[in-house]
Amino acid sequence: MKTLVFLEDHEGKLQMDSLGVLSKATSLGGEVEAVLLGGEVEGLAAEAGRFGAARVHVMEDVLLTKPLPQPRVDALETLIGEAGFDTVLFAATVLSADIAAALAARLDAGLNWDLTDVVVEDGRLVGKRPALGDSVYVDVGWTSEPRLALIRSGTFEPEERGGEAEVQKFEARLQDFSLETQMVEQAHEESEGPSIEDADVIVAGGRGLGSPENFSLVEELAKALGGAVAATRAVVDAGWYPYVTQVGQTGKTVSPKLYIACGISGAIQHKVGMQSSSLIVAINKDPNAPIFEYADLGVVGDLHEIVPKLTELVRARKAA
Amino acid sequence: MKIAVCAKYVPEAAANARIDPQSKRLDRSGEGTLNQFDVHAVEEALKLKEAEGEAEVVIVSLGPERALEAMRKALAMGADRVVLVSDEGAAGSDLVATSRVLAAALEREEPDLVLFGQQANDSDGAVLWAAVADRLQRPLVSQVAELTREDGKVRGKRQTEYGYDVIEAPLPAVIAVSDAINEPRYPSLKGIMGAKKKPQETVSLSDLGVDAGEAGEAGSRTEVYALGDPPARGDTVKIEDDGTGAEKILAFLQEKKAL
């Protein structure tokens, strides 16, 4: 097996999930190499070496400065053609999912996504994928090489091994259509606002709250419990609550001792960000909401009645 | 301006969907519907059309023949016509095969803008647009929560792991929209009545010039080996609120020493 791991960086730092996938690739055996694409990224190669990459392929080009997928597809196509990899792994992000799928079309290669494990069984690579709202686990494979895979976010922990990577620079011609999109404004990590990642208790609100004003219900309960407030992507996109509080695939991954979900359906996008919470309580009026499949306690009912009452009860209990 | 919306026919209530243990494909024998995420793409296309004054909205889908009925919902909302690629030879297509067939159908239409919904309800697939954009060699913006059009360009606000990017792409372009982008309209009675009369074309792989070996399982590069049960997450309890829901949550938190 000769594996290439795509490393994603943001504002001069390697993404943790990328390093997690790199560590996993190393544990599978064979040759493991990594690739870094960007304006100035060579400096990150040493860290990739410590997490298991024997060689890091680096392409630096001002046209790769912005995190846009299409020029990266051209670079990877060239690299895979020149260096020859049978397996290419990506930690799933908004950027890498687009890159992986376009690369699959470009190379006529199989792509399996949302994998929560990759193993070698009977000499072949097998991906494990939860499907249909995680109600069934599917073993998936590839019928040709290279095999492309997107790993679900937060799946593998990075493990530092202390190795050293050989840096190999390469160049690729970027196609005209790949350079047509322009980044007008780029997101920066927001550091202001409350941190939900360290909270022991999180009370989260979703579309079921009905209006942005009703976030006060969630805030009151969080205050009574001494916890933090979180939100789903739907309400963040709708402008009800700030992005820094968003839990899920494109937000934060949290694992508090207690997670109370109010008016959250619990779609997979949200689930991946909070499923490792020790205790999950869900309040939702829709009895078919997916969150009830994995909430330790689910209450089917009107959160507008239950949440304020629960806040009162918690306050009374704490005062006692 | 011509806008194509790629839409998928999915089983009704994906929560109750099952995978056929024999074929290891999703069981599509039951009732089907228009993928809910694609309804947002249809709505966005209709909003663009209304802002534009004159535009054609065409729904492009790949699926079994009865998918046509589900696609009528888009016509009832206001889309102008449907092109359904329906062919036994395309059944079981994975990402590479599906993107090849859809790209062929889109090349025939030559739209100025191709819209996708955020994901397929049944497969949780959220990548098809990028494969299609690559085949069409067109610029791509995905995860768009806000879309605006200004002469010859579209501008999308995209949510990523770090916040919001704003990206511009010249037309023709491929855009995937998030479900937060709009609240889809309900079809009016008049719309529902008129939907049946709108053009609905079914085409085969050979109509599109796609060889049998390039679609379906023959054209796919992934396979399913086995199905299994998910790891258990311990006991889950679901109760109906009878007015004592808050008390029950408190008792539960006390029992688990979570207070």
Blueprint (SSEs and pairs):
The complex is a heterodimer of chains A (320) and B (259).
Chain A lengths: L1 E6 L1 E2 L2 E2 L1 H13 L2 E8 L6 H6 L4 E6 L8 H15 L3 E5 L2 H14 L2 E6 L1 E5 L2 E8 L4 E7 L4 E5 L14 E4 L12 E4 L15 E5 L9 H11 L2 E4 L1 H5 L20 E5 L5 H7 L4 E6 L12 E4 L2 H17 L1
Parallel strand pairs in A: 1-4, 1-6, 4-5, 5-12, 6-11, 7-11, 14-15, 14-16, 16-17, 17-18
Antiparallel strand pairs in A: 2-3, 8-9, 9-10
Helix pairs in contact in A: 3-4, 5-8
Chain B lengths: L1 E6 L1 E3 L20 E3 L1 H17 L3 E7 L4 H11 L3 E5 L9 H15 L3 E4 L11 H9 L3 E11 L2 E8 L2 E8 L2 E5 L11 H7 L4 E4 L18 E7 L8 E4 L4 H11 L4
Parallel strand pairs in B: 1-4, 1-6, 4-5, 5-11, 6-10, 7-10
Antiparallel strand pairs in B: 2-3, 7-8, 8-9
Helix pairs in contact in B: 2-5, 3-4
Structural class of chain A: alpha/beta
Quickly give the CATH architecture of chain B.
Answer: 3-Layer(aba) Sandwich
Q: Report low-confidence residues of chain A grouped into runs of 5 or more.
A: none
CATH topology of the largest domain in chain A: Rossmann fold
Strand line-up in the sheet with most strands of chain A: 7-11-6-1-4-5-12
* Count of domains of chain A: 2
**Morphology of chain A:** elongated
The CATH class of chain B, by name, is Alpha Beta
Please, what is the average pLDDT of chain A? 93
By CATH, the superfamily of the largest domain in chain A comes out as HUPs
- CATH fourth-tier homologous superfamily of chain B: HUPs
Radius of gyration of chain A (CA) equals 22 Å
Q: How are strands sequenced across the largest beta sheet of chain B? A: 9-8-7-10-6-1-4-5-11
Secondary-structure element series of chain A: EEEHEHEHEHEEEEEEEEHEHEHEEH
Helix content of chain A: 25-40%
